Amino acid sequence: MSEPVLEVKGLHQYFEKGTANENHALKGIDLTLDPGEFVAIIGGNGAGKSTLLNSVAGSLPVDYGQIKIDGHDVTYQSVAKRAKLISRVFQDPKQGTATLLTVEENLSLALKRGARRNFWSNGVKRNERDLFRAKLASLDLGLEGRLSAEIGLLSGGQRQAVTLLMATIKQPSLLLLDEHTAALDPKTSATVMEITDKIVHEQNLTTLMITHNMADALKYGNRLIMLDHGQIAVDIKGDQKKNLTVSDLLELFKQQSGAALTDDAILLS
Amino acid sequence: MDILTSSISLGFLWSIMAIGVYLTFRILDIADMTAEGSFPLGAAITAHALTTGIGPVVATLLGVAGGALAGFVSGFMTTKLHIPDLLSGILTMTGLYSINLFVMGMANVPIAGTTKTMFTLLQIGDSTTTTIVIGGIVLAIVIALLVFFFNTEMGLAARAVGNNEDMSSANGINADAMKIIVYMISNGLIALSGSLMAQTNGYADISMGIGTIVIALAAIIIAEILLRHLSFGRRLLTIIVGAIIYRLIIALVLDWGVDPNALRLFYALMLTLFLALPLIQKKIAQVQQRHRNTKQITEENK
What is the CATH code of the structural domain delimited by B2-257? Predict the structure, then answer.
């Protein structure tokens, strides 16, 4: 049995603790991801998806519980420190790239994720450019000729695809996808999801993807988790996940939580 | 011709400061007021060192080190203590006033005519020519080092931090450390400018920093108005041009007989105008476009 990539134990998160507005956002999450698992996490607004992802990424300090990646306790590590093990694609395409820097500069930065950066060798090395061109060509978006273009000039979808490359150009132990297609139009969103799936499979990446889109959650990944009110309501893997339909999912949710799923945002998407 | 050469020589020295300010202003997107304290700090340290017999190169470098230290203090306050960046700069600047007085021992330290300075290292022509040559050499070294640094692994990371902190952290960049480094380089350069200014003027004065950030910003904005969207190295070169143009404007204004006491008011008004210029241009273009549109519509309706 190989060591799990991600172990979340007894994770609780509170917002505005001790005030009248206290919000117990995560209520004791236990979650273990084995190597190669591609987990889609769904749930309505306020279910705790983003809170969970931000806790794992390190952008939200942990109140109670423990987070381990590759066996290392990262519970109290900064975002920058964890970047050695984790890479992340944000929801907002602007957030994942340095818009004033060129495509190759962004990729070079990502290639050194979590490594020491010195002040004597070139930021963009000549021998890296072939790798960048090949990687960009694999996206099939015609970006291989635009290495020295400012990344801010690219469209949202192109930028999100480049961010995916940046997140995976140096293999992470864990890839976090933070509703990374939510800000794109449906067609572009589908393209970026296809690219995501391809990269995740090629590199056999352990992936945690949160999404608002139930269809994507059913179509992609080999495990599906539904969060509800800060708890895991549904957790399905393997063959069971493969044959899952929307109505199965709703039924499962009803069994687990004892209530019908009423969140329109989830049902409609 | 005299006005031109003196504007070039002063423009060279000011552009070192403007480049320093540019690093925090455009790369980190911070208006760092530390500048008005580190400029006289560089002057004070160098003047004091020169009067105690230390050689001009070492005396100048000591001034640079002092500026870098001041930058560290502001950078530390804003990144580690989360004091708003504008306030951090003002706090350091205020504290530096006392420190500068301690260093100088009095409000004004003359550098005796017999003392060796950076500008007596070479004997070429008159003092203006010497300032241009020495200033030019220092500028060339500064720009070469900056262009080199900001294209290294660390320099790239520093630029990314100013542009997008979330992305930088997600890629393992220690954003606080990078910001502090930029603060240090920036204020080191500003102190260098102050140090050279004291050496060419023949004295360091406690009040020489007042209003300097406005002069530096004006040079930057002129450069950006002249040419938009330039690579980093070219931008630094245009800032020199911006600084020289600014000195020319000031020289012409003084030549017209404007009261020197009104000069700071003039600096402030001019920078305000420069900063508002992009908006004014946009508004004018909008009005013109509306005008064309109305005309077209009325013609179509005929």
Answer: 1.10.3470
Among residues B190, B175, B209, B159, the alpha carbon closest in space to that of B69 is found at B190
Adjacency order of strands within the sheet including A64-69? A23-33, A6-15, A64-69, A72-73
For B134-194, the DSSP string reads: HHHHHHHHHHHHHHHHTTBHHHHHHHHHHH-HHHHHHTT--HHHHHHHHHHHHHHHHHHHH
Distance, CA of B217 to CA of B19 (rounded, Å)? 9
Q: How many CA within 13 A on the CB side of residue B255?
A: 10
Judging contacts by C-beta atoms under 8 Å, the chain B residues touching residue A113 are 171-172
The answer to whether residue B214 scores a pLDDT higher than 90 is: yes
Q: What pLDDT does residue A266 have?
A: 55
Q: φ and ψ at A29, to 5 degrees? A: -85, 125
Interface of A with B (CB under 8 A): 57, 59, 78-81, 83-84, 87-88, 90, 94-101, 105-106, 108-110, 112-115, 117-124, 166
Q: Residue A244 corresponds to which tokens in the numbers above?
A: 């899952």
Find chain B residues with C-beta within 8 A of A100's C-beta.
159, 163
Task: Tell me the per-residue pLDDT of A19-77, one tens digit each, with 9 for 90 and over.
Answer: 888 889 899 999 999 999 999 999 888 889 999 999 999 999 998 999 999 999 999 99
Q: Summarize the confidence of residues B206-215 as an average pLDDT.
A: 93
Relative to beta strand A231-237, strand A223-228 is: antiparallel
- Please, which residues 120-159 of chain B have a Cβ atom closer than 8 Å to chain A? 149, 151-157, 159
Cβ-based neighbour number of residue B281 at 10 Å = 11
- Which two three-digit tokens encode residue B159? 């630029």
What does pTM read for this prediction? 0.90
The boundaries of every CATH 3.40.50.300 domain in chain A are 35-62+73-85+172-269
What is the distance, to the nearest Å, from the Cα of residue B28 to the centroid of all Cα atoms in its chain?
14
Q: Which fold has domain A35-62+73-85+172-269?
A: Rossmann fold (3.40.50)
ipTM greater than 0.85: yes
Query: Where along chain B do its domains lie?
Result: 2-257, 263-302
